[in-house]
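Good morning,

Both structures are done.
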Amino acid sequence: MQSSHSMQRLHNALSSYYHHSKEFTSKARTIIGLIIFFAAFIPAHAQVHVKLQQPPPNMLRMADLWKLTLNNPTTLTYIIKIEGVLDEGSEGRVVTGTSGSLTLPPGHKVITYDDVKQSGSVTFKPGKWQEVFIRTGNAPSGDYTICIYVKTKEGEELGSDCIHQNVEIVSGPELVSPYNGEVLSTAQALTVTSAALVPMFTWLPPTPAPKSLTYSLKIVEVLGSQPPEDAMLKNPAWFEKSDIPTTTIQYPLSAKKFENGRSYAWQVKAYSLATQVTISSSPIAASEVWGFMCKLKTFSVVKCGYAKSEFLGTVATDWRIQDYRRALWPSYGTDEIWGTDAALKWRRDIYKKYKVFKCTLALNHLENHQYDSRIVYAPDSEIKVESFFDVYTEVNLKDLKPPKDPSDSIPTEMVPLDLKGLSFIVNIGDIPPEKPEPPKPKPPCCHETRRFLRTVETNWHLHKPPETVSRPPSGRKTIVGDASTVIVWYKGIYNEWEIRHCGLEAGHGGNHANFNFAQVYTFEKSISKEILYGVGEAQNPPPDFGLPKVPNPPGNVVPQQNLPQGIH
């Protein structure tokens, strides 16, 4: 059909031709006149423009089927109905719906799901479709086409629009280690002020795993009785890192240290590399929030024992009166006192002064010695001087001056007079000899090689809590109303490696030797299977793959890129 604007141009052209052409016969003029007359009354139904709104990526909710804008550029007001259909590539038509009667005046009109569900009807294809939309709020994974048709109440189409939407439901990353509620511990020496607890964080990729993924890890402290989920939402980040290319990360030694007796929560988010990834980017999927606790074990440590000393010189105490005696002498044959004698004993002590260094590290440490130091004094000798003099009045001892002695050249330090039981007064035999520091131990050789041992599998574990559904297992009959159980099982596949370290010192000559061996694992892939169990049916896991079994996760898991390059 022609637009109203086109009709007007046709009307004007024919009218002009009708009045000005001399070649038209009377009959032709009559036919053209009838065309112009009826063209003026042809309704411009095709003038309603329909524009569907594209849903967000990987999302298709019921409301998205009815998000559209209508544009009626004519001067007419229509009574319309809106018909919508949803087709899936392999399932065909899965949803149809029709609105009630709506008024469409000239201009723009926005249509939403409310305009359909209040007076219209929606029909789902038999099977899972209605249950999935109601339970999850989203269409299952699939390749969809949404079409909308605007029609008059008589059924004549005024306009339509179709869009394509691909939905790929991605489950969040599956956390593996540390598992929820795990207590992480590390040995801490009693003489060490802090210990570094550096756990390995491991998770499984989303399923189905999109290509080109990167991850972020966020750790928060859990305060008091907070649930981990609440802590993750409200508490500041203890540690946060984005752009992690693998599904494992070792907590950095340089990061803020975990504190003894504190609890923490962690979560992993997955991002598509199609967009630049930052902490503020929108993830395509997020894991659950798991919690763990840190506990440090303490033990006594045998110290290195290395000590040395530095002689600082000979020092002495001040002179002091050790003894004072006074004698009265009476006159011969009388009771009168004719004289007084006084005897003084002066004393000062001589010490050897040392600075003693003791290593504070543990026995057999490899790094350089680290010292505590203190000043000590070792008794060397003592000097005593006795003097006598006559006195005829009371003597003030404070006014007496010490004697002159060759030891006056020795520097005087106010060493306490009571020498017994003081830690800084030691026997000369207890002072370590003055000796140079021993040569620094050489670091070990860094040469490492790897050897592939085997591929292993973990036991089957529950991927998430079992769900109860109303449909029976495929090909089985069940009583109406009986509930079946859906269990999603998963297991990890790992590669086992032997790592060989050279046991010689760095820079050694000749071939590598004195090897030490370690066993590590690298994550290969995860496998999940969904099984529907009927009423009373044993909920056994799927069969294993016949590979050697290891715990879930196995100990000492390292990123693939951390393996040595060399092979032995």
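Second structure follows.
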Amino acid sequence: GCQFLRAHLPALKKTKAIDLVIANGENSADGNGITPDSARYLLDSGVDVITTGNHSFRRRESYDLYDSCEVLLRPANYPAAAPGRGLCVVDMGRVQVGVINLMGTAFMESLRCPFETLDSLLKTPGLPKVVVVDFHAEATGEKRALGFYADGRVTALFGTHTHVPTADGCLLPHHTGYLTDAGMTGPIDSVLGVKPEIIIGKLKTKMPARFDWAKGPCKMDCVLFTAEERTGLCTGVERFSITLTAAAGKYIIESEEPFFLVFVYGKERCFMEKMRTHPSKKKAILLAAGCLVLAAAVAAVWLFNRPQPGKLYHFQPGEVTQVYLQHYADMRDVTDPAQVEEIVDLLNGFTYHSAEDIPPASGWDYRVGLSTNTWAYDFTFTADSLRIWNRDGSSTIYSGPAGYLQPLVDMADGAIPVASGTISQPEGYPYHIELEDVTQLYVTDLAETKEITNQEDIQQVVELLNNFPYQSIEEDTYVPTDWWSFSLNGPNGAFFGGYFTTDSVRLSGNIYHGPEDYFQPVMDIMEAAPSLPEHTPEVSSPSALDSASPTP
């Protein structure tokens, strides 16, 4: 098994241009478990991160290794007193990748809830945009549930443990790559790597039996995900198997679907220790090792500075609360749900083949503004390009297919009449900000604007806004002049802002009143933050920070 990995992983990495390899090596030792020698063998073969599962601690000699080796993980929901860690961050130079190892609890050991553990890990300060999860679990339902729970919050989540590959590789609704189980690598004519007759006899008689590994041609089941490194979103999923042809002695790739990005998974069993202690048995051991089960996963991420083609937005129609179109001074509010859905579909389907950063310059003729329950977006466009403004006045032009945005131009021109209707508005206090979406935070008092850069301070402000226990709401179109204001910037031109006092916040034309001194920590954070350098451009006026009223 390990020899098969070492023989073919380098060629696979070159063929697929793989940047990162993650291997579940909990059975890389003789029989099961992992030892320092087998872990070193995997790493020397080109593996970057080793994950494990329910056999993590079968070998006592590995306990110290879990503490000393940062890229050897055990499930994060093991008790804190257990050796090792369940999260690591790999610095690849141009991008960092977070790897999380979790274990299920259905039909498995009774560990901490994997859902709560994932929530906790995703709040880790400095966690990269690209995050990959190995969920070592028995029940397919538990795996799919965690996949949807993590959707939009991690780049990819794949299951391991059952040794049987599933055919449900997909992009979930919020662009997390998913596969229930990546399968195994080992003898094709076997039951999880064991001779079929042994397992059949054991199941028929219910008597214990000594396992003997099957022989013959092997395969390695793989799953590959593509990641857009700027946003951390998954853009492609592919599942395939590598088999060793008996005649030519070469491996071939049998792919199920023509997607284009990366991840490999497997679990290894290695007889290297036996080979070192019993050199005379090397030939027999090599034959047996080639038939061992690779029961978990080798996973890899192929990352691009700017994928070709690329996508910018993934709006859900039910999340959109306001849309307007503008051509010169003519502004049109789009309130018909069908037309809102058409605009959302156009923006979601827009794929760019190039992006160009340009210095501050005058705007284009056409503008579209869109607000969700939290974020607001405001950008200009032509029939084939989108232009997103940056805070310093510069902008980025994303060029796509010729004429793709022509329907949006026609709506703004009035060539397609904008129908009347009503967009459903959220009730109560609907605002929820994902911490990982925040790229900048500014707070303004009556005299000065400051950027909040400390990650813990940003997290505290986001949590205060998300958990605001409002006690009453009043509608108010008046823009306060004696209130403080805040502005959060998000991905692809998104922004969210409003006004606040110690006990109230004004958002989208509503003033929410809450407990006394609730927002005092935000004021304290602002006052303690350093002033902006004199050359830094000024923050937009308060009215431009109000996400409900994007200023053209």
